[in-house]
Write a structure and sequence with these properties.
single chain, mainly alpha, Na+/H+ antiporter like fold, 18 helices, 79% helix
Length: 445
Amino acid sequence: MPHLLQLLLLLAIIVFAAKAAGALSVRYGQPAVFGEILVGLLLGPTVIDLLHLWPFAAANDSLGSVVKDFSEIGVILLMFVAGLETDLDEMKRVGRVAFWAAAGGVILPMAGGAAAARVFGYGWREAIFIGTVLTATSVSISAQTLMELKQLRSKEGSTILGAAVIDDVMGIIVLSLVVAFSTVGGATGAGNTNAETTLPALISGAVFNGGKTAEIFFVIALMTIFFAISIWFGLKFFDRLLARVKQVPASQALLAFAVGVAFIYAFLAQYIGQVAAITGSYIAGVLFTRTRFKREIDEGIHPLTYSILVPVFFISIGLEANGRALLGDAAKLSLMAVILIVAIVGKVVGCGVAARLCGFNRQESMRVGVGMISRGEVGLIVAGVGLASGVINQEIFSIMVIMVLVTTMATPLLLRLVFPRVAEERVEIYEAIAGIEDARLDRDE
C-alpha cells in the first residue's frame, strides 16, 4: 500500500478515535483530554500497538515520524492558543495570593519529584526533569470544573485560574532552563543513572569541565537576547503589522500571518534562544493578546488547532507511551505510585499553604490547592519535550503520562468534594432568581 494511503488511513483513525473518546469522556463528567489520552494508550503499545498492525507495520518507522512531526506542530499551536488565552489583567487582579500559590505549587512538587527520582537511583538530570513535569497545572480542566460548579468568578476560582496561568509561565521558564542546561552540561542520555553521582558533580561538570563556563554564560546571553528582542518587537510592531495584513486581499491573511509568526518565534526560540520551541509560540500568543485583532485570531486558530493537530498530539502521546513495560517491574510501579502521591500532595500542600499564609482560611486554601492538581495537556507537553530532547527515557515518559491521566481524572472529583455546600447554595440562589423572574414575566403578561 502506498505510504500516502497508509498515512491518510492512520490520520483518519486518530482523529475519529480522539473525538469519539473525548465526547464519551465529557458525557461521563471528565474533560475531553482525558478520553483522548486514554484512547491513545489503547491504540499504542500498551494495548493494541496500532503501528505494528496491518496495513501500518511495513512503514512503522516512517509513519511514526510523520505523526510525530504533526504532533509537534500541534504542541506549538496548542501553546500559541495558551498564550492567547493568558489573561494578564486577571493575573494582576488576583495578584499576590495567586503568585505565591503558583510559586508553592512549583517549588514543592519539583523538589518532591526530584527527591523521589533520586531515591530510585536516577541521575540529577532525569530527577530534575521529573520534578519539572510535576510543576505543570492545566488551566482548562480546572476552569471547566469551576464553571460547572458556578465557582469560576468566586474568590477561590479567580485565584486558581490566576495561579494556574502564573504556574504555566513559571513552568515554561523552568523547562527552558532545564533543557538548555542539560544540553550544555552534555547529557549522556536519559535513564543513565550513573551520569552524575551528586548535584555538585553535575554543576561542576557543566561549569568547570572543558571550559563550560563560557558556554553557559553564552547560553544565558542568547536566552536573554531572545526574550528581550522578541517581546520588544511584538509589543511595538504586532498591532501595526496586523493592521496592514488585514488589508491584504487574500483569504485568511490575518490568521496565516499570526500562525507564521508563531512558527517563526518557535524556530527562533530553539535555534537562537536555546529554549524550547513551545516557549516561542507561547510568547507570540501572549503578545498577540495585546493587539486589536486578538479576537479574530482566537476565533480562527481554534478550528485549525483542535480539528486535527491537537488530536494527533494527544493520540501520539499514547502511541509513544508503553505502560505494558511497567507492569513487570516492581521498582517502576513503586516509582509511579510515589510520583502520583507527590503530584497530588505537592500541589495541595504547596499551593494551599501559600494561600493560607496570604490570608485565605483553611477551607479556601484547600480549594485552591485541589484546583491546581490537574496536569492535563501542559504536563504532556513538558514530558514530550523531555523525551524528544533525550533527558528522560521511554519508561519515565510512560509514568508521566499515567500521572497526567490520574491527576486529570482526580481533579474534577476532588473539586466537587471541596465545593459541595457552596455549589448547592449557589444553584438554589440561581433557581430562586429564575423563579422570581418567571413569576414577574407571568404577572406582566
